Amino acid sequence: MSKAFVCGYPISHSRSPLIHRFWLRKYGLDGAYDPLSVPPDELHALVSRIRAGEFAGGNVTIPLKEEAFTEVDRRDEAADTIGAVNTLWRDGVTLWGGNTDAYGFAANLDAEAPGWATGGGTAVVLGAGGASRAVLHALVERGFDVSLTNRTEERAEGLAAHFGPRVHVAPWEERQHLLQHAKLLVNTTSLGMTGKDALDLDLAALPSYAVVTDIVYVPLETPLIKAAKARSDLQVVDGLGMLLHQAVPGFERWFGVRPEVTPELRALIVDDILKAHP
């Protein structure tokens, strides 16, 4: 029986067990996927258990992604570029670390806004935290020029230097003006998340062909998503699909089946979110 896990500290909030256990049932597989509470100083011991064959691999979440980056033998291109590992798997004696967040971000848009990346264009990205790194990697790979803005401009400058000439930094105070030529607007900040302040942004200047997405998925309809839907002419993609799609490559590595993100799976996770945040 293949065994996998999600580790973090704390870990009780993770919805990964719901996702992977749903797929194990759906495909009738003999496997297990469990949450493990792992402080940063105990990650090395868990990695040793993977190397010993106890686990096929697992997911890594906050605050262990950077620590996992240093624990593996080899990393995929996304993990190297993003600077963090969220997926671990064994290939013979080699322990691999990957990052599926960029894949999950792009796959969500592929599914919900087909053609979003055709011909490239300009994307406006709000926020320069850890999640922004995965989004920038995906956008640069898909041929976008990115206008990146963050409340602390120095952090945005650091990311622009890392990702190269296709990423340009604009002051946070100018975020409104960036919308005029945006083909895609992405919020990677925590603004709009349950318990946080709303994002202060007027979407009136966005072109009618623009796509708006928010990687926040609690609540499912953030103030940004709500405002974009009110325009009626914009394509709008919420953040839940990124969570679901980023889980696909890991499941395939550990259990040998490439799973599908279906309406049934989404409904399961939506129900769980609504129970936790009625």
TrEMBL record:
Keyword match Amino-acid biosynthesis: yes
GO molecular function annotations of the record: shikimate 3-dehydrogenase (NADP+) activity
Protein name: Shikimate dehydrogenase (NADP(+))
Domain Shikimate dehydrogenase substrate binding N-terminal span(s) in chain numbering: 6-88
EC assignment: 1.1.1.25
Amino-acid positions noted as binding NADP(+) in the UniProt annotation, renumbered to this chain: 77, 127-131, 150-155, 215, 239
UniProt xrefs under Pfam families: SDH_C, Shikimate_DH, Shikimate_dh_N
Keyword line: Amino-acid biosynthesis, Aromatic amino acid biosynthesis, NADP, Oxidoreductase
Record-linked InterPro entries: Aminoacid_DH-like_N_sf, NAD(P)-bd_dom_sf, SDH_C, Shikimate_DH, Shikimate_DH-bd_N, Shikimate_DH_fam, Shikm_DH/Glu-tRNA_Rdtase
Family: Belongs to the shikimate dehydrogenase family.
Domain spans labelled Quinate/shikimate 5-dehydrogenase/glutamyl-tRNA reductase: 122-190
Pathway of action: Metabolic intermediate biosynthesis; chorismate biosynthesis; chorismate from D-erythrose 4-phosphate and phosphoenolpyruvate: step 4/7
Domain named SDH C-terminal: residues: 239-261
